[in-house]
Amino acid sequence: xxxxxxxxxxxxxxxxxxxxxxxxxxxxxxxxxxxxxxxxxxxxxxxxxxxxxxxxxxxxxxxxxxxxxxxxxxxxxxxxxxxxxxxxxxxxxxxxxxxxxxxxxxxxxxxxxxxxxxxxxxxxxxxxxxxxxxxxxxxxxxxxxxxxxxxxxxxxxxxxxxxxxxxxxxxxxxxxxxxxxxxxxxxxxxxxxxxxxxxxxxxxxxxxxxxxxxxxxxxxxxxxxxxxxxxxxxxxxxxxxxxxxxxxxxxxxxxxxxxxxxxxxxxxxxxxxxxxxxxxxxxxxxxxxxxxxxxxxxxxxxxxxxxxxxxxxxxxxxxxxxxxxxxxxxxxxxxxx
Length: 337
Hints:
- By secondary structure, the protein is mainly beta.
- It has helices at about 1-40, 295-300, and strands at about 70-80, 95-100, 100-110, 115-130, 135-150, 160-170, 175-195, 210-225, 230-245, 250-260, 270-285, 305-315, 320-335.
- It has a single domain (about 1-335), classed as Porin (Beta Barrel), CATH 2.40.160.
- Strands 1, 2, 3, 4, 5, 6, 7, 8, 9, 10, 11, 12 and 13 form a 13-stranded antiparallel beta sheet that branches.
- A hairpin with a 4-residue loop joins strand 9 (about 230-245) and strand 10.
- The N and C termini lie far apart (about 65 Å).
C-alpha cells in the first residue's frame, strides 16, 4: 500500500511539472510577442533591439554600420483577463493587473565584410499579478541571431537563424522552474511606402522616407524544454506600421502559430493553434519637454506605448484551450552607443 502511494505521488508530481511547463510556454510566448510589439514600433531614433518577431521593426533588415550596443527599459502595466490561463469560460478565470518590467542589452555587429549581421542580447524580466500571486514568474533570456542582410536594400528577403535559451524562476529568482532552448530558422520581408503611398526606392536605409510599412515573418522552431514536453512550431506573423507624425505612430501585428508537443509518458501528443492580434499606439515625448534633443537622448528618448491584445489558443487537450485579453500601457526608454 505504501509503495503504491509513493508511485502515485511521484507520477502526480511528474504530471504537475509537465502541465506547469505547458502553461508557462503558452503564457510567455504571448507575453514575449506583446513585448516585441512595443519594441518594434517605428521610432525615428534608432534605439530598438535588432531581434524581434515582427518584420516591420525599424532596422531589423538593415546592415549594422559598426558594432553597437542598445540598452532598453520597458515598464508595462496592464489588465489581464485570464491570468492563470484556465480553459475559456471556466469559472476560475481570474482578472488581474499585471506588471512586467523588462531590462534588455543587445549588441549588433556586421560580420567582417560579409552580407550578414550578428545580434546578441540578454534580457531580464519579472512578472507580477496583483490578484494571482501564484502566477508570478521571473525570467532571464539570452539570444544569438545571425541574419542575412542586403546592404543596398533593406526591403529584400532577410533569412536568419537564431538560438535563444531562457531560464524561468520563482519570484525574486529564488528557485529554478524551467529551462527552454529555442532553435529557430526564419525569414523576414518588408514593403515600405511613403506618405503618398508610393513604394520607397530600394536603399540600405529607407527609415526616414517610410510612412507605411508592411511585413511578414515566417519561421520553423524546435524548442527543447526541461521539464518537458519539448515541441515543434511553425509561425506566420504579418505586421504593419504607420508613422502618423514625429510623436505618434501605430503598429499592428498578428502572431499565428501552430505548436506540436512531444508525447509525454507515452500519451497522445498535444497540438495547439495559437492566434494573437496586437495593436500598439505610441507617443514619443517631444524633445522640447526636456529642453533639447541632447537631453532627450540622454534620458533615453522616452515614449509611452498603449497596447491591446487578444490571445486565443485552440488545443486537442481541453486543459490548454483558453482565451485572454491584455490591455495596458508602458513607459519605454532606449540608449544606443
